[in-house]
Amino acid sequence: METQRPAQRRDTQDRRHEGIVSDVEGFNKRAGRAVKDQELHDSIQTFTGKAVAARNAVLHALPEAPELRQRAYHIKRKTMANLDRYLEQMADRVEARGGNVFFAEDGEAVVRYIGDLARRKEAKVITKAKSMATEEIELNRRLEEDYADLDLEIVETDLGEWIAQLAGDHPSHIVGPILHMNKRRITEVLSGVAGEQLPPDVEALGSFARRRLREKFLAADIGITGANFGVAETGTVVTVTNEGNARLVTSVPPVHVVVMGIEKLIPSFEDLSVFTRLLARSGTGQKLTVYTNFITGPRGEGELDGAEEFHLVLLDNGRSNILGTDFEEALYCIRCGACLNVCPVYRQTGGHAYGSTYSGPIGAVITPLLKGTSEAKDLPFASSLCGACWEACPVGIPLHDLLLKLRNRQVDEGVRSKGETLAFKGFENTMRSPALFKISGKMGRVAQRPLLKDGSVRPLPGPLGAWTNSRDLPPLAKKSFRELWKEGI
Questions:
Q1: Residues 6 or more apart from 66 whose CB is under 8 A from it?
Q2: Cα separations (Å) of 47 from 152, 233, 261, 479?
Q3: Facing residues of 456 across strands?
Q4: Tens digit of pLDDT for each residue in 356-407?
Q5: Within its chain, how far is the Cα of 50 from the centroid?
Q6: pLDDT in tens, 224-263
């Protein structure tokens, strides 16, 4: 058994870019292109519309859903308050079952651990089940680059993830990684791999994928998965999926590696029962997903299923820096994707506009926390603050409040441009002064005259034009309320 405990924590600023090369900045430009893509809109609306309708139906049929939501929130709060203790308990239980535990401070440490393991095992084929944590640290690309001499073949086996990998693409949704692709595009990608034109038929495409992936399952030397939950009291890793690939990844290769964010821990199986009743209902509108797997270490004596060797990699990558802060609630997320499905911004732009593994409201919160404010300064503003994300969240994370706190932090850190800072300061002074408010109203009514068109003011000059490019700005009334009041109207 090999257990490596956490090294001393480093400052967030020093570790911000470790293991991550994706460029988050530029949301506004990417979003601008996305809102003009009708094909993308159609795909997103189809997926999210069905997901929201199904979620609402199953939660409505679960009278105890509000109570479960409150319990889930309190379980997560309790876990984060005692995370160090639960991490030690999880590690001890895994070791007791003959497993190996590694505490990874960042993505670089994960890559090094798995790469060295692949070298020792003389591995050639690695199969992977769907894992947001490995996407976050870009595990596939970095293993292939840093361990190029091993000539590793790393294969995503979730159908959507595999298609994205073949297309040189990235997931655009936590649950539906290729919801941005329609049937035409998927057929095009798989036909390219097949070397022949496949029919645009779901059954035919699925059969082709099954044949190709089966070869990889049988040839795999190492299987890598993420984890939906880690149960500290027993050292059990839980995966919740709708495809059988995860079971093949965890049981066919002789070595199984789990890469799990440290926030995925929960204390007990009793607590797990709360989350399993919420996760599938919130994410896919199912009472329960097709496969719920419980893995407690390597295959034991007399057991027929499981890997011969088990490794649990507990990933920090900036998470411990969020503990005990005003943003700790972001760590309560169970990755169901419900907030994405109801978010008006996500539904217009899709996931790729966010430039990060995590998109939608939770991505707009967690990405700046993990990567740093300056690198992701646009994301906290990618929200209408309507609160739909909080209402949909099965754990009750107040995402709209966290987004406001991130905006406030940018002001405190001086991240916003001087021009924007001066503009808002001027607005503040105007709103505080009755005299300035009165003068600005009169000046505004004069200034808007040449811009009046079809009952609205457009286009506004300079950078203000970005507002009227996609919105109607009502004109100021000819007379203010004070003027009408004085006239007795």
A1: none
A2: 34, 37, 27, 47
A3: 453
A4: 999 999 999 999 999 988 788 899 999 999 999 999 999 999 999 999 999 9
A5: 20
A6: 999 999 999 999 999 999 999 999 999 999 999 999 999 9
Whose tokens are 């109207």? That residue is 489
Residue whose token pair is 């292939």:
144
Compute the residue count for the chain: 489
